[in-house]
Each structure stands twice: as C-alpha cells, then as structure tokens.
Write a structure and sequence with these properties.
Residues 410-414 and 419-429 have low confidence and may be disordered. The chain is an alpha/beta fold. The protein has 15 helices and 23 strands. It has helices at residues 16-25, 43-46, 58-71, 78-97, 130-143, 209-217, 246-250, 276-286, 310-313, 315-323, 380-398, 436-450, 457-471, 480-501, 519-522; strands at 3-6, 9-12, 31-34, 51-52, 104-105, 108-109, 111-112, 122-123, 148-151, 154-162, 165-173, 178-182, 185-188, 221-222, 227-234, 254-256, 298-301, 333-342, 345-347, 359-361, 366-367, 525-528, 534-537. A hairpin with a 2-residue loop joins strand 5 (104-105) and strand 6 (108-109). Helix 12 packs antiparallel against helix 13 and helix 13 packs antiparallel against helix 14.
Amino acid sequence: MGSRLETDFLIVGAGIAGLRAAIELAGAGRVLVVTKEQLGESNTNYAQGGIAVALGGEEDVELHLDDTTRAGDGLVNKTAAAILVEEGPLRVEELLEWGTRFDREHGELMLTREGAHSRSRILHANGDATGAEIGRSLLQHARSIPNITLAEWRTCEELITDGDTVIGLVLVTRDGERQTVSARAVLLASGGAGQVYSDTTNPAVATGDGIAMAWRAGSEIADMEFYQFHPTALSLPGVPRFLLSEALRGEGAWLRNSRQERFMERYHLLLELAPRDIVARAITREGIGASPGDTLPVYLDMRQVTGLNLNQRFPGISSFLREHGLELGRDLIPVRPAAHYLMGGVKTDVHGRTSLKRLYAAGEVACTGVHGANRLASNSLLEGLVFGARAAAEMREETSFSARMEALPEHTLPEYTPVRRTSTTSPQPSPHTPPVADLAASIQHTMWVKAGLLRDRQGLEGAAEDLRDIAAAIPRTNTRPAIELCSLHAVATLIVRSALAREESRGAHYRNDFPQRDDVTFQKHSVVSGDGRVQFVEE
C-alpha cells in the first residue's frame, strides 16, 4: 500500500498553464504541482517564436480576434477567442511585473510577425527562446509563494473518482512508489501529445497522459482529429525534428522545392505566411517524388534576408544548425512538417470546467475550441496564461476552502487497468510481448503513415486495426514507460476515431477522399464520450 497525501488544489503539469494557475490559487489554500520530469521540462520550454498579444489597443484586439477566427477555418469558439485576445494584454503585463525579460529595442518591446497574422504582435525573448524565459519567470515567482509545493518526477497514473466527481489521483514516484493524492479540485495542465507521431517537435514528455487519464475516468474529449503539423522542422537523417520557428518566415525566409523554385504562390496569397495547415500540406506535396515512397527535399531559404543579424535574432536555432554544418543566410536548410500542437483535448468551457465535477483542464491538454481547426501561430503560450488563470479562478470560486475533503477509500490502491476504454477487450499479453519501446514506436509509425498530414478511410481503418493489435500487447504494469505507452495508445485511438468520423477537410484535418469543407454537416465539434462513440455538437 502506497502513501497518501492531501492538498487543497492539485495541478498536473508545470508548464505555462499549470504555473499560472498555481499562482492564482495560492491565496485560497495549499497547491501541489506535480510534474513528470524536472521542473522546466515541458512544451512551454521549447516554444521558440513568441507569444501573440494585442498591445495596440481596441483595434489591435479586434484584428487579433479576426486573425484567430480565420486561421481556425470556421470552427473557432468565438466566445473563447474573444476572451483570449481581450484578457491577453493583462496577463502579459503580469509577466512583465514578475520579471519576464522580453526583447526590447531602444527600451520598447520588440514585435514581430508570423504566419496568418495581419500585423506584428509577437513578443519574443532571447531571440528564439520565449517559452523558456516565460517559464523561468513564472517558476521563480511560484517558488516565492509559500502555499505552492512543486513536486518533480511524478508520473500520473489514474484519476480517482466518486461517481462523476474527481477526488484525487494515483501517481508513481521516480522510485516506483505509488501514491494517492486527495484534493478539493484537480487541474490538468499536462500539455500535448506530440510523441504519438514518429516525427514531432515535442519533447519526450509529451505523451498525452492528461487526456488519457481524463478519458479513462469518463470525461468528454473534443476535436482530436485536429493535430497541427508545424511546416518547418529540420529534416536531416538521424537528427531530431528540431523546430525552425515560424518567426524565420516572419523575418523573410522563403520556401523552395527540389528545383529551388519558390512555390507558395501556387497555394496561398500570403505565400510563406499562410496558415500553418496550408504551408505544411504545400511542403508535403512539393516533396512527393515520382514513384511511391520517393521524397524530394524542400528547403527554407534566408539567403535573401538583409539588414538583420540572423545569429543574434535566432541564437538557439543558429547554434543547433551550426552543430550540423548549416548556417542561416548561407545555406538552404532542409525542412519537412512534424507534429507540433493538438487543437483537441479534454473538453472544457471557458472556465476550464470539464464534464466531470471538480476536474478542470487548461492549456494544450484542454479543448475550449479557441483554436478551431487550426491554431494561429503563437497563440498557444497566450492560451496557457489566459485559461490557466481562468480555470484557477473558477476552482477557487466553486470549491470553497471550508468544503469537506472526501476521504479516499481505505483499501489498497486501485488495480491498474491502462487500456480501459481503448479496446473492447483486454487480453493478457503473451510471454513474447514486444518491449514497451517497440510498441510505442509501432504506434508512432502507424500514426505518421496512416493518420498524419494527409488521410483517407483506408489508411485510418488500417490504423484502427493496428491499434487494436497493439492493445493486446500492452503490459499491465505501473512503470512510467508502460503508463506513457497506454497514454499514447489512448490518444492515437481518439485521433483515429475522430478523423474517421469527420468526412470533410478542414484546417489541420485533411481527407484525400473528402477534400472539401462541408459546413452543412461538419461545422461542429467532435466529442468522444467515455464509451468511445464520436458525436458532432454545436458550440
């Protein structure tokens, strides 16, 4: 029997949404923030380009809303988007008060432009390390608040429920000890799930644990078919898909095909600054060879950019490229799309409330509909700030400090059944079960080939069959690798089921067999319930 802990508010994840929520909650009780690895290891830390915010007054706010709505391809929740752009300036002002060092020129904040933005409104820090700087300042501020406890190396296994109410969770420490934590309210701020694909810009921790836990507990999950593939990740054999920020194109980079032709004029009037889904598909099409399976190189070109010190503007990117013999402004940089950001997730309202009582979600793990079918560049950090704060305010309001703390059941820890809700049966693995790493690689390969940037029914049905086979081999153990494998399997299942159900093309979801957008039938959000059925609902 493991140890038992109590807290008032439990937050899963220490990225931008989790830390901002912790700061908001600290005045109302004890806050425990758990993170799977060391503090600072999250998608927030890897965010390069910047944070989009309308600091130019009411007109800028309206334009930011228009840009967000257009990029979302007809599916943006306009209430959520209005909250994002209207509350964004206040949240960024707080960051400045807490010591976030955004880049300045002559004392004024520097603003740049990225894809699908109508004007320059992107703040950046240390050139191309914006997320790391925001995370640093939030973590420093959180550490100064006595009521906040930060716990590293805790892998979250399962939510504990009493009927339709979440009362705590089970986690596993670095030493393998299982612990139960009871809380008045739980916030999922566990980030994305890019590791479900073989090619991703996400760090290894992004395995979708929060989404998987919420689904297994019975929470509704929305819009999982909309996975954004960043157009420009470094494409070198044996090298990780290092993100080459959209800010490069904002500063004038061009895209060229294998014939060194600039090709984006064939795809969109905004050329290289078109929405990400359009640019990613254009690169994919330009890279298709004459024979099945053949690929052609596509390049990012900054040789024509003048009047800008590229090493100074993009120090992190420049340093990484130099390690591989490449240099911005001198070389053509080979690129290809990679899985980057999940627009879907645990379905919430604009206050972070899920379909389960006392369970909240914010940031990439959540789905308010704010991004619609395709996220506008650099809106993700802003989303974490705005909706992390809003979810915390709602938790504080709905869960009074004098509320009774439900005692966790006085029995042994719940049996770990990781593939519940992902398969109709749960056969025991054979003695010859493949290693966990091989099973994870199988999921990633299947998702990349059959449920990636370009989809069709045959591929998606093949992916569903592969996932059913993999489910039978998943070990029923509570080690971190096994827990993450179960999370990947759950996320993959949700993506495939949702993508099969949406028989149209919209935003980041493209069906070769249904290439047109169908507003009559599908201008709605997909929702997967606990039994795995997919329904389409209005906002």
